[in-house]
Specification:
There is one protein chain. It is built from 8 helices and 7 strands. It is an alpha/beta fold and 194 residues long. The protein has one domain: Maf protein. Strands 1, 2, 3, 4, 5, 6 and 7 form a 7-stranded mixed beta sheet that branches. Helix 4 packs across helix 5.
Length: 194
């Protein structure tokens, strides 16, 4: 069974490929900031925002690809129930790292599978991360190792690319932290194939 991945994340595609899930990428191109702003104005929490974004991406692509299974995904950072967005500049990335510094936060990864424009399955996974207490020079040194395009696309830390050094501890599934709770996806696909 070949699924459509409604995400431009190269890391999510790599995870699907690693687990031999046949896929093709069709990017949803939803305006995430507009959706987040709307949901926040309604009092939505980070978990709800993550779930909604995964579903909206999945359904948008599903509507244009009848009879296909479409996987939408979204990950957000929650610090004391506050949504931490991806940075829009290097300066903002530094501010976000300062905010996360020496604190526990949660990375929420949500996935949704749709068919014929209707959500048929979803799952959310939360991982707990505690960042070390780093000084400004250490934070700047870390940020300087990440090119701007990657930083703005994937957020302030990439666990898969050296970001693990920022943390005192990480409790959660590595694939989920990178954007896809793959074991749950595999279990659901196996049910579909029966």
């Amino acid at each position: 069974m070949k699924i459509i991945l409604a995400s431009k994340s190269g890391v999510r595609k790599e995870i699907l490929d690693k687990f031999k899930i046949e896929n093709e990428v069709i990017v949803s191109n939803v305006d995430e900031d507009e959706i987040k702003d709307s949901l926040l104005s309604e009092g939505a929490n980070p978990l709800s925002i993550s779930k909604n974004l995964a579903e909206i991406k999945s359904i948008k692509v599903s509507n244009k690809n009848p009879d296909r299974y479409v996987l939408g995904a979204d990950s957000v950072i929650s610090l004391n129930e506050e949504l931490i967005n991806k940075p829009k500049s290097r300066e903002e990335a530094f501010i976000i790292l300062k905010k996360l510094n020496n604190s526990v936060h949660y990375l929420i990864s949500s996935v949704c599978i749709s068919k014929n424009g209707v959500m048929i399955w979803n799952h959310s996974d939360s991982s707990e991360l505690k960042m070390k207490n780093l000084n400004d020079d250490e934070l700047s040194l870390y940020l300087n190792k990440i090119d701007t395009k990657t930083l703005l696309a994937y957020g302030v830390y990439q666990i898969e690319a050296g970001g693990l050094k920022l943390f005192e501890y990480v409790k959660g599934d590595k694939d989920s932290i990178m954007g896809l709770p793959i074991r749950e996806i595999i279990n659901y696909i196996k049910q579909l194939e029966k």
